[in-house]
Amino acid sequence: MFYSLQNLWIKRILEFILLGFFLAVMDAGCVEGKVYLDTITNPELAPFPIAVADFTSPQKMGGGEQEIARNINRVVVNDLVLSGFFRVIEPKDFPPQAQISRSFLDRSELEAWSGSGVDALVTGSFRVVENSLIGSFRLYDLVEKKFIKGTRYEGRVSEWRRIAHRIANEIVFQITGEKGVFDTKIAFVGNQTGNKEIYLIDFDGENLRPVTQNKSINILPRWTLDGKRLLYTSYMKRNPDLYAIDLESGKNYRISYRNGLNACPTWFRDSEGEKMILMLKRDNRSHLFLTKVGETSAIPITSGSASYASPSWSPDGRQIAFVSDQTGSPQVYVMDINGKNIRRLSYQGNYNVCPAWSPRGDWIAYCSRQGGSFKIFLTTPDGEQVRQLTQGPGNYEDPTWSPDGRYLAFSSTKEGGAAIYVMSINGTYQRRLTTFRGEATNPAWSPHLE
To answer: Which domains does the chain have, with CATH numbers?
Structure first.
């Protein structure tokens, strides 16, 4: 992290503190202190001005290379804009004296940006060697006029989009101290073929592809911790069994097939290995069971005449958020991992479901029926603070967190049929991801994918 940009941002945020806004500065005593600047949750803070130059090539660019360069630029710029952190200045808006024709710049070339109001500059270079794409980016501090960070990437030409996302991730990390989520994907259920199948889509709404094509009913996708497999419930054998599919090989296998419901696994890893809590049918009710990954036995952690559903593990592995009708209508609760110390969280509305615990541990998102339609709310784990995130017509359901806890994906009918959307954790920057024919529901956000 570079000091002049830190100081500039600190000055800006301190000005906002005088007006009552929030500042979070961490690791200030380190040699390379990291400032966590969350313009997503503090939209009053002006986006960070950053210039992104056209990528160049050390060799004469052919038509194919020019197209790849334009595509990489487009994805990097789009990622930075979608993050909500940046105001991106593109080459057509560069100062006349600051035109860039190469990736490596010296101080005199950076001096041309003086007085421009731009704080950082990104340049890039790449070349194609047979079927390989070799590229790098460089990040410059335009306040102190110095080079900050450079990273080299190499992959297949077909992986240009992944390389672009990785560049954007590194830029976000250098500015905010936290990695971006541009390498992530969102799984969801779509019925565009007439059947409910599982699909994947990138964070930016591109690269849509089917995961299942079994012409059955496939619902409730969930990611494994390493992001290599998806678990989902399917009626392929006429019972709602739990399946796992390896996303690289496409191999599909059944992992839980007890009579009745097998669904909604939530994962945690500790010193004993990976554990999973899932919903299973017991005494004509749904209950929550704990199992170790790879084992067939399952230990019940709920019992009684009420139903228990939709488990979501806390990041520290000590608690579970879930839904139960033990007071009559479905409500959101939290309990310890052993099934004890049950506390009700939701009191607004008579129907509250779909809890999702933030990776940061500070919020639990859930759906609440308000005036005949569902809206998305946040509550702190102690239930002391409650915030409504979505408003307006239509239903807003199935919240799922990005791995950095900065965004939520959800399904909504606000524009007609159900589609997948993404928003910041204060409910702003809502954008639609899915546009295909048919409806899209049950989103599940992946961990970081390398």
So the answer is: 3-176 (3.40.50.10070), 185-445 (2.120.10.30)
pLDDT, tens only, 71-83: 999 999 999 999 8
* pLDDT single digits (tens) 54-105: 887 765 655 577 788 889 999 999 999 998 889 999 888 898 888 777 778 8
Show Cβ contacts of residue 116 under 8 Å, excluding neighbours closer than 6 positions: 95, 98, 142
Q: Alpha carbon of 266 to those of 187, 212, 299, 313: distances in Å?
A: 15, 21, 15, 6
Residue pair 364/407 in contact (Cβ under 8 Å)? The answer is no
Order of strands, edge to edge, in the sheet holding 218-223?
Answer: 218-223, 229-234, 241-246, 252-256
pTM: 0.87
pLDDT in tens, 352-395: 999 999 999 999 999 999 888 999 999 999 999 999 999 999 99
Which tokens hold the place of 398?
């199935």
Task: Choose among 72, 86, 55: nearest CA to 174.
Answer: 86
What value does the CA radius of gyration of the chain take, rounded to a whole number of Å? 24
